[in-house]
Design goal:
- The complex is a heterodimer of chains A (425) and B (294).
- Chain A contains 17 helices and 13 strands.
- In chain A, a hairpin with a 2-residue loop joins strand 4 and strand 5.
- Chain B has one domain: MetI-like (MetI-like fold), CATH 1.10.3720.10.
- In chain B, 73% of the residues lie in helices and 1% in strands.
- In chain B, a hairpin with a 7-residue loop joins strand 1 and strand 2.
- In chain B, helix 11 packs antiparallel against helix 14.
- Classes of the chains: A alpha/beta (425), B mainly alpha (294).
- At the A-B interface, helix 1, helix 3 and helix 16 of A face helix 1 and helix 13 of B.
């Protein structure tokens, strides 16, 4: 009898173990309206990210101002690829964070097809809508519905180290590719590697931006209306190939990731680099001398192409999980308005160097490099988004592999483009 | 009656785990197979496309490279890594000087994050500042210096090598098995004039056959579902030369092509089953309970 009781207790314990596992698998329920509304905010704006500190400051301030009513909880996820996977798998499972961020592209705009995202169409009106710079709300609208709020934007001109240019006897950044190759030869003669490149990471970021600049020069403001079969893609690939050969980049560019490309520029090993304003905070902290010597320029024009193009795009949109709870919905809207408030956005911009899709005033102590970003983007002859924003993620993923194949002699520029076409089908 | 009671309790004890196994393994597995027959972006309606995802994958050159690489991984881990682990276990089982310290050192990488290890090897292999190229230069072999992870010919061997060297996990399993082999067998062989090598070949290996087959099966399964170090070190590049199915699956999840991702998952499951059966057939059947008895 005693033996049976012990067995029964053990069996019961096993079932008890099963219950919480199943219960947790089902997800947590929303809290009642009488309680403090807790909003989860998983984000990659943490850790080393230049926006980490200002975002945390704003969230703390919001929580303080709304104590007892709303509490925003940051869930740190410093790995952007991992973050994207988490959001994707969450959406597939029907579990969406209360507030989250995504990089707008043809793949992520697919989120709009679900009814899991909060619809801001009726909220983004009046003064709130007027606080956004022209065109961004429209760019975040699909089929008349706004399911994400434009937030961070990016412009990615060419960065060059003026000190290294002077050392090589070059005055100013070349305006044509013929001048560019001559300048690259001078840099090499002075023992300086001309450019940072990379085929690694999820999108071969630096090289993808070079490719976008070259295509913009060749195709002008309507470049992305041209299909991948257009000859400009092959011509741009030929120039990209030259950027990788003849010592025009570092030996570790093939296979290198953003850390390699940015690291060489910050270490003063390379003279030319491309990235957005969000990188200002990083370079200012890690390589102040290079930060001080950095000047911005438009990419050189391809022979017969256009000069003065800027690659500009929406970098991050804010989104929220849909809810039937009006209190929770109101809390989300309140936080979104707080985060996109021009004064708060100005604070983030000054602290991190990032730029935003809102109309905001910059203080007097603006970082000189950020000032250059604002000037060069406002003076551009035209602005187009980058390659990544025009194609589904699988094409972007293939780009790095295709560049590698071309640089290593396994594909011609024509075959490079064909690799992209194959994946795009 | 007692027999009946004991069967009843077996059912009672097994039921919770069977339910959990069904909920968290069998059910998702069925879901994987069903989704693999659809075109689905993670939300919205699933469109049944039957075998289209499989057809696409087998016609895709990159996927064929990935399958080939997964088999290279499986055989490298199953044969090279297990051989190295066996040799080291045999040496340590003879308790040389500092053998306990060495056993810990060999096992240490298994408790270190794979990310940290991959970062270390990226630094070692780097073409600009890597330790390997520096060593070659110091040895007067600078003509062999290269971009180890950025060259098609060297990238796959470089990634496999760093993984194969971490033998600690299997070395511990084999060493534990070796310690259970009675010393009297070796003493008798010694009296008969058998050399150390002969003792290991004709006593240790036959006695550890089941453990070795199990280790080999596990290592090959790890090779087939390999993902981490390749993803961290090359992301499948350059030019897809180190591509593996795990990375393709991950990329398809990223691009919201869940049907294709699940088709890759299904193929991985089938290949895993095939490899396990193959090993058992080639090396003879092995009972896991035999190992427990040892």
């Amino acid at each position: 009898m005693k033996k049976h009781s012990v067995c029964l207790i053990f069996a019961g314990l096993l079932f008890l173990l099963l219950i919480p596992a199943v219960a947790f698998a089902g997800g947590q329920k929303d809290k009642g309206p009488e309680k403090e509304v807790e909003l989860t905010f998983p984000t990659f704006w943490v850790g080393q990210d230049s926006k980490s500190a200002p975002i945390q400051t704003l969230v703390d301030r919001f929580n303080e101002e709304n104590a007892g009513k709303i509490r925003v909880v940051i869930e740190p996820n410093p790995d952007t690829d991992g973050y994207r996977s988490k959001i994707n798998s969450g959406l597939a499972a029907g579990v969406v964070p209360d507030i989250f961020v995504f990089n707008p592209d043809p793949t992520t705009f697919g989120y709009y097809e679900s009814d899991l995202l909060m619809d801001f169409t009726d909220d983004l009106t009046g003064d709130w809508a007027k606080s956004f710079a022209d065109g961004y709300i429209q760019a975040s609208t699909m089929n008349g519905v706004v399911k994400s709020i434009p937030f961070e934007i990016g412009v990615t001109p060419i960065w060059y180290n003026e000190d290294l240019f002077k050392k090589a006897g070059i005055n100013g950044f070349p305006k044509t590719f013929d001048e560019f190759w001559a300048a690259a030869d001078k840099l090499k003669a002075a023992g300086i590697v001309p450019t940072s490149q990379m085929t690694g990471g999820a999108n071969a970021w630096t090289s993808m931006l070079w490719y976008s600049h070259i295509l913009a020069s060749l195709g002008g403001p309507t470049v992305w209306e041209r299909p991948l079969t257009d000859p400009i893609y092959v011509k741009a690939a030929e120039i990209l190939l030259k950027l990788y050969t003849d010592g025009n980049t570092t030996k570790d560019a093939v296979g290198g990731d953003a850390g390699v490309a940015g690291g060489h520029y910050m270490a003063g090993n390379t003279a030319i680099f491309i990235n957005g304003p969000w990188y200002i905070g990083r370079i200012k902290g890690d390589a102040p001398a290079v930060h001080a010597a950095t000047r911005l320029a438009y990419a050189p024009a391809v022979s017969g192409g256009k000069y003065g193009a800027m690659i500009g795009f929406q970098l991050s949109n804010l989104a929220a999980g849909n809810t039937d709870d009006p209190v929770k919905r109101a809390a989300v809207i309140k936080f979104m308005k707080f985060l996109t408030d021009p004064e708060n956005v100005s604070m983030i911009s000054q602290a991190s160097g990032a730029m935003f899709a809102l109309k905001y005033e910059m203080g007097e102590d603006v970082d000189p490099l950020l000032k250059q970003f604002i000037e060069i983007s406002s003076q551009a002859s035209f602005s187009v988004p980058h390659f990544q924003s025009q194609y589904r993620i699988e094409v972007v993923q293939e780009l790095g592999q295709a560049i590698g194949a071309m640089v290593l002699g396994k594909a011609t520029p024509e075959e490079f483009v064909q690799m992209l076409i194959d994946v795009n089908q | 009656m007692d027999h009946y009671k004991s069967r009843k309790w077996i059912v009672v004890f097994l039921l919770p785990l069977v339910i959990m196994f069904f909920l968290f393994f069998i059910l998702p597995l069925g879901f994987v197979f069903i989704v693999s027959l659809t075109k689905w972006g993670g939300f919205g309606k699933m469109e049944f496309v039957f075998l289209d995802n499989y057809r696409y994958l087998f016609q895709n050159g990159t996927f064929r490279i990935a399958i080939r690489n997964n088999f290279i991984w499986a055989f490298s881990l199953g044969f090279v890594q297990i051989t190295l682990a066996t040799v080291v276990a045999m040496i340590l089982s003879r308790k040389p000087l500092m053998w306990k310290f060495l056993r810990t050192i060999y096992f240490l990488p298994n408790v270190i994050s794979q990310v940290a290890i991959a970062m270390m090897w990226i630094a070692i292999y780097n073409a600009e500042y890597g330790a390997l190229n520096r060593l070659l230069e110091l040895a007067g072999l600078s003509r062999f210096a290269t971009n180890w992870l950025g060259t098609i010919e060297t990238a796959l061997p470089a990634v496999i090598l760093q993984q194969v060297l971490y033998i600690g996990y299997f070395m511990i399993i084999i060493l534990a098995g070796r310690m259970t082999v009675p010393d009297s067998l070796y003493e008798a062989a010694d009296l008969d004039g058998a050399s150390v090598l002969q003792q290991e070949l004709y006593i240790t290996i036959p006695m550890l056959k089941d453990i070795l087959i199990t280790s080999m099966t596990l290592a090959m399964a790890f090779g087939l579902r390999h993902f981490e170090s390749t993803f961290l070190m090359t992301a499948g590049g350059p030019a897809n030369s180190t591509q593996v199915m795990g990375i393709m699956l991950y990329n398809n999840l990223h691009s919201l092509t869940y049907g294709r991702a699940n088709a890759i998952g299904s193929i991985l499951i089938i290949l895993g089953f095939f490899v396990i059966v193959l090993i058992r057939r080639v090396f003879g059947s092995s009972s896991f309970t035999t190992e427990i008895r040892q």
